[in-house]
Design goal:
three-stranded mixed beta sheet; mainly alpha
């Protein structure tokens, strides 16, 4: 790893500033060009610090799997993301992260996932009947990314909270989390606008928006606790989670982990499904195998 570090190409701040417009427009495309030019490994100097960029599987494995204890969450995660989504598994570090991980992991056993998978299948079936079938019958074109976003939202919302919140409340949470995520992206792409965000009151508006969403989810958590009813969803799993000393999560911890699960299971899933459809269309022979498999296995 040290030998690799010695070979790494550093993209200086001045060079990066000259390419600022390209970065702001589409960071993924800009960084991809850098990786292609420098054989999959480069250090990029940006206003928020020095960033190592790589698409080499062995280096990604070294950092995320084999030596993860040597690496702490970045400033972006510790400040921007944690401020918007809370101190859950995605944003925490050290002993607190380990404590949460050990407590939560047993909840994702096969029996629990089987119950949640039923919720997912029901939501997918309803969505197909209500939406996709109509598109198929009419021959109308549609934006697959938006539709997969709606489907992922329905799945993750029901998997997390079951029927404890109505559709309007769930859609409000979705809108609030989406706006907060976009605000994080804006700050990463254009950190020089931080004074402007303060002057225009955007920071204050986003904090108020987050507080509104948090209060809605906290209400659901407290109502579920008081009712004692079982819903076989992820909220139930978190409520049943116990630490080594036998204690349970506080309401704020439950809130943070629910939001993290929502963020992790929503947009990422929607994008993965969108690209999967794209690739299937590009490879009809694989699509045919998938159809045949569905017929044989599912009928």
């Amino acid at each position: 790893m040290e030998r690799e570090k010695a070979k790494v190409k550093r993209i200086g701040l001045l060079e990066n500033l000259l390419s600022l417009r390209s970065f702001v427009r589409n960071p993924a495309v800009y960084l991809q060009k850098i990786l292609r030019k420098h054989n999959g490994l480069a250090e990029v100097k940006i206003l928020m610090g020095l960033v190592t960029v790589t698409d080499r599987p062995e280096m990604i494995r070294h950092v995320l799997q084999q030596n993860n204890r040597n690496y702490k969450k970045t400033k972006v995660v510790r400040s921007l993301i944690r401020e918007q989504v809370g101190n859950g598994l995605l944003t925490s570090d050290g002993p607190y992260w380990l404590k949460q991980r050990r407590a939560i992991q047993p909840g994702f056993h096969k029996q629990r996932l089987n119950g949640i998978s039923k919720i997912m299948v029901n939501e997918i079936q309803e969505y197909m009947n209500d939406t996709l079938e109509k598109y198929a019958e009419s021959g109308q074109s549609f934006d697959i990314t938006k539709e997969m976003g709606r489907l992922a939202f329905r799945i993750v919302a029901k998997s997390l909270l079951g029927n404890s919140a109505n559709t309007e409340e769930l859609e409000l949470v979705d809108e609030i989390v989406s706006q907060n995520q976009q605000f994080i992206v804006d700050q990463v792409r254009r950190p020089f606008l931080k004074p402007w965000f303060h002057l225009t009151g955007k920071y204050k508006r986003m904090r108020e928006l987050k507080r509104k969403g948090d209060n809605l989810i906290l209400r659901v958590i407290r109502e579920r606790k008081q009712s004692g009813e079982k819903h076989d969803d992820l909220l139930d799993m978190l409520l049943e989670t116990r630490y080594e000393d036998g204690s349970s999560m506080a309401d704020q911890q439950l809130l943070d982990e629910l939001i993290i699960l929502y963020v992790a299971g929503h947009e990422t899933t929607a994008m993965a499904m969108s690209w999967a459809w794209y690739l299937l269309v590009k490879h009809p022979e694989i699509e045919e195998k998938l159809v045949q498999s569905g017929i044989e296995v599912l009928g």
